[in-house]
Amino acid sequence: MLRVSIAALTLLAGVPAAAQDRGGMPMNHEITELGQIEANQGCPMSSTSVTVGVNNAMAGGSSARQQLGTFGGGGSSKCRPLVSTQVVAGANLALGRGSSAGQTINAQGPSGVLATNTYTRGYNLGYGALSSANQRLVNQTGR
């Protein structure tokens, strides 16, 4: 069951990243946005950040803690991507009597982009008498 959950999380993380290069972006302020596109020539058109964590405490009375972070600064102020996609996925399992599992994942995307797509998914399970599982997933857009 754990392998199926990890495979599902990997698939959920990969599909949005692969879809980023397809389709178009509706323009709200054509002159401003076209100016940003012109100024960005020679720079990457998009950036993708994928942060995935798997944390488990399996034995009775065991404890596991995990903390992950990703910062997508976007490069220099003269060369930033136009579109950003951020994926945060986590699986946190406490599977034993009195076990404890804690997971924190933080992601910060680049600032100054025209569009940002964020996907956040988590699976948190505490199974067994006196077991506990805590999970915190944060997927922020840069300002």
Topology:
Blueprint: H1 2-19, H2 30-39, E1 46-57, E2 63-71, E3 83-95, E4 100-108, E5 115-127, E6 132-140
Parallel strand pairs: 1-3, 2-4, 3-5, 4-6
Describe this structure in words.
- With 143 residues, this protein is an alpha/beta fold.
- The chain has one domain.
- The protein has 2 helices and 6 strands.
- The strands form 2 sheets. The chain has a 3-stranded parallel β-sheet with strand order 1-3-5, covered by helices on one side.
- About 4% of the residues have low confidence.
Mean pLDDT: 79
Based on secondary structure, the structural category is alpha/beta
Estimate the helix proportion, in percent. 10-25%
**Strand neighbour order, sheet with most strands:** 1-3-5
H/E series, N to C?
HHEEEEEE
How many distinct helices? 2
Strand content: over 45%
End-to-end CA span:
39 Å
| Poorly predicted ranges | 19-24
How many domains is the backbone divided into? 1
Main beta sheet strand tally, sense and closure = 3 strands, parallel
Output the radius of gyration. Answer: 19 Å
- Which of globular, elongated, flat, extended, rod-shaped describes the shape? rod-shaped
Q: Could you tell me the number of beta strands?
A: 6
